[in-house]
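Workshop exercise sheet. Pairs work together: one partner reads the sequence aloud, the other fills in the structure field after running the prediction. Swap roles for the next sheet.
Pair: D.N. / O.F.
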Amino acid sequence: MNLPTFDRIPGAIAVDLDGTLLNSRTQLSERNRMAIRGCVACGIPVSIATSRPIRTLRRLVGDNLTNICSLVIMTGAVGRAAPPLSGAFREVLPTGVAKGIVDLLVGMGPEVRVTVEIEGWEFGANWAADAETLWRLNAATPDMVTSVDEALTRNPAKIAISRGGGDISDLAAEVSRRYGDIVSVVPANGMTFLNILSIRASKSGALRHLLMSRDIAMADVLAFGDDIPDVDLLTSCGTAVAMANAVPEVLSLCSYSTTSNDDDGVAVVLERVLTISGLEQ
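Structure field:
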């Protein structure tokens, strides 16, 4: 553990969700919740940056945080600011490219599970689930789900791929080979999950867009992460903190580290921010 020290207040805070703000049971601890709320109450813009869509994010952390934090969702394809920041955007996949990728992946095996995310609420899927499973795993109701073909006509922002929890290196390599100059292919969860989005979309780009509303530089941002999808964000922010449970690539690139996501590693650092003169809670 190599905790950062602070001689001034960060201009903003960016926090990854899974493996970072949430513990290994996908829960938000009260300590982490209070640390985030404390920073927001002190006027520090806090952004939650995640690969998840907004429907699952809201269920996991609750409206009391999603309403006061800016959101960078779906690996940066969609952004929504909360005061003191302002603005919103959505970076979509080119329609023809999205269809080509889906056709390619489906052709590589019937077990490939494709989810075409539209805006973070509705999505298309080539898999089916009963209403209870759909809500438990995707925080979705049946009316949110449409066919893949229908979703592709609605300017989707992201394609998510999995294959029964197995390795998908071959899928990532083939999409990168054919479409690498147009899309970003971002693996996660030990190469068992794949995020495909416009090459113009990224967590850092989305955050930068939202921070522009208050002229906050990325160099003044304190960021937390644990996995490959966080690399772009961590390398773009001035103070990068890796969780103790982070993958080796993240641990090696960050100047600082904190305790694990099961030991409230985010709060451990944010409580240091809150003890700076004038911010005691």
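Discussion prompt: The domain at 95-198 is CATH 3.30.1240.10 (Hypothetical Protein, Haloacid Dehalogenase-like Hydrolase; Chain: A; domain 2). What would you look at next?
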